[in-house]
Amino acid sequence: MKKSAFWLLSLLLVMSVFLAACSGGGEKASTEKEPKDDGKASGEAQEGGTVTFGYTQPFKGVLSYAYYEGEDDVNALQFMHEGLLKVNDELISEPNLADYELSEDNTKLTFKLKQGVKWHDGEELTAEDMEFAWYLIADPTYEGARFANVAMIKGAQEYKDGKAESIEGIKVVDDYTIEVTVTEPSVNLLENIWVYPEPKHHYGDISSKELPDSDQIRKTPIGVGPFKVKNIVPGEMIEFERFDDYWQGPAKLDGVVYKIIDGSLAQGLVQNGEIDVIEAPKDQWEAIKALDNVNPVEADAMSYSYIAFDWGHYDTKKGVVVSDNKKFQNKSLRHAMAHAIDRQAFIDGFANGLGKPLNTPFPSVSWAKIDDSELNQYEYDPEKAKKLLDEAGYVDKDGDGFREDPEGKPFTINFDAMAGAETSEARAQFILQSWQEVGLNAKLNGGSLKDFNLFYDTIEADDPSVETFMGAWGLANDPDPAGIWLSTDKWNMWRWYSEKSDELIKKGVSFPEDASKDVTEHRQEVYNEWQKLVNEELPIIFFEQRVDPWAINKRVGGVKVTPFGTDEFHKWHIVE
């Protein structure tokens, strides 16, 4: 699962969930579930040329899959690096840089790397680069969020805890073969294990803790993808040029420019041809999709937005969330705050109808999504919200128009949201007014919105002023909620601990006790139970499942749009 200004991804695997940004606007949700090609670029494909890919939030510049966090950086990484596996059109993992073989008891996975795959500096990709990536993530000093993607390797936890000098379950057989033994069988090992190699020769002796701030990642990053970095203007632009030794053959384009823009100017920049490909701000979609030079594509996305309650903090030493904030532990309060918001009106008003309310962390494009008839729907019902608050003891005792808490003390709610879209401020005010209209004294934390990176940095730091916040996740192809929802997950942003939730999440990746039972049926049953649990407990308000609007200039062909974003970058081309 993934941060996205909308929480994040292209062909990312389970471990590659990302934080996404909350873009504005929308339109009717497409029922299309298959990946899409722009399909409308007519004319003959030309060799050469440059395409500009736009994004509306500054990027951090952490250009390594092992360390990046947000959509801002993965938008750049997708052009320059790839994994041993990829996700196909059926959302199933399949070989990419390596073939694989899984033992009959599902405890040993062997990767056979393709020979002749080159890093951008000319060095050949070897099995040691994959081993190196696993060691970086399991290192005791690693501060990233992806240990869950190596934790299943035998001995990884002992290495992380400083109790072992090496990871017992990793064996490099030769330059192109690497075996990994896991602690126990799991049904989604291929989707969950980390598969992005890191360039051992390029990083040298830099520690895992220091790498995210190193020149090797910030200034001279390399990968094995179709484009290599030519120039970086921090936070503003990255120029890529074609990598002629790309393993699938040279890309058709000479280069790609990843350019950060002011989201409020997106329509004009697309119209003028300054931006060729962009996930358009939803609040401008009606105007952008009508432009003569644009092929518009709408795609159901593997992502969702939410409003989180702050449950506590993350204990870094113990590696577990601590739900010690009492403020939002009254379930009736959480239910009332959900019923107070007209989510459909929000989607219609700010997203051109692109999206629809959801009540579970699985969007409809996921095979594991439970039928809505089995869930609380949390329809807009301000009278029900008021009744729930009254019954829970949140009443206005001093006559100022706002409710006090059950102990009669003033009750205020801080709300955080991201800047970046033309309607960001109005969207935040919509939420605040919805809560105020049922008597809850809600206000914007600090009096202003935060940009993408400050927003997530503040939340991840467990800033005590953060009480509720609107965020989003980009998800991976497998429905396993681990990575975001386990009590040990650093990206459990709301810091919610539930023993039952942890138990079900782990059960969802185990094989059924009855060996004759279909694995998918078993997982569906487990995930149905888990979705009912989080739907009833409502640790966060599940807000909307997204429909992503992509604007693709008609001069650009070969752009494949999937539920995760765009893909097949080496096939992008200019048409005449």
From TrEMBL:
Record's keyword terms, sorted: Signal, Transport
UniProt cross-references to InterPro entries, sorted A to Z: Opp4A, Peptide/Ni-bd, SBP_5, SBP_5_dom
Signal peptide region: 1-20
Pfam families: SBP_bac_5
Segments of this protein annotated with the region Disordered: 26-49
Positions of the Solute-binding protein family domain: 94-490
UniProt entry tagged with the keyword Cell membrane: no
Stretches of the chain forming a coiled coil according to its record: none
Stretches with biased composition (Basic and acidic residues): 29-41
PANTHER family xrefs: OLIGOPEPTIDE-BINDING PROTEIN APPA, PERIPLASMIC BINDING COMPONENT OF ABC TRANSPORTER
Family: Belongs to the bacterial solute-binding protein 5 family.
Protein name, as recorded: Peptide ABC transporter substrate-binding protein
Organism: Cytobacillus oceanisediminis
Taxonomic lineage: Bacteria, Bacillati, Bacillota, Bacilli, Bacillales
